[in-house]
Each structure stands twice: as structure tokens, then as C-alpha cells.
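Reading a protein record of the kind used here takes little practice once its layout is understood. The reader may check this reading against the record printed directly beneath this paragraph.
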Amino acid sequence: MDRKVIKSEKAPKALGPYSVAIRAGSFVFASGQLGLDPQSGNLVAGGIEAETRQSLTNIRNVLSDSGSGIELVVKTTVFLKDMADFPKMNAVYGEFFPENPPARSTVQAALPKGGSVEIEAIALVK
């Protein structure tokens, strides 16, 4: 099975010793994405909705650079700083997965850089 490290200029750089994504066989494993602006590396302003939108945009860009796409996501894990933000996160999440959404888990967690949300994904390769 092939294993390829994925790099993307359209997503924030990794915050530590990990890859933004790994393409392994017919799958892409995208590391968790905070709501970071790819250019500045800072959290976007606007709260949970803006951070969720940026997180999913970052994932979409990483998947595109991996030979996949957001429509091919089979599983996500959402990490929320505060479970009270679930309805707002869920509304934005639904914009990215309007039909046949992937399997998903959501957990509460402390996040790097004081983020409100982090999302990771597993997707099929085109």
C-alpha cells in the first residue's frame, strides 16, 4: 500500500510534528483543522460559526490537494471546546454536507491556540 504525505499551501501549516494529511491506498486521513486562516496562522474572527466554516474550508482544501474532495468524506470527528456550541457548529457543518453526510463523532476537548472547534476527516480518493 502506498503512503504519501500531503502538503497544502491552501491550509494552515501543521502546529507540530505531524502531517496535514496522509494518503494511504484509497483513503485520505486529514489531521484536525482548527479555524485558522492559512496565511496568518491565526484563528478567524467571528466565533464558533466562523471557526467551523474555516475549519471545513481548510479540510476541503487539504482533501482537494490529496486527490479527494469534501463529497468523498466518510467519517469526521468534531472536537468542541464547549458542547453548548454544538447547535451553531452543526448548522455550519450542514452547509458543507447538505446530503448524505459522513459518519461523525463529536466530543468536548481543550484545543490548541484557544480554538473553539477542530475537525478531522477520513475520505476516499477520487
About this structure: The chain has a mean pLDDT of 96. The domain at 3-124 is CATH 3.30.1330.40 (60s Ribosomal Protein L30; Chain: A;).
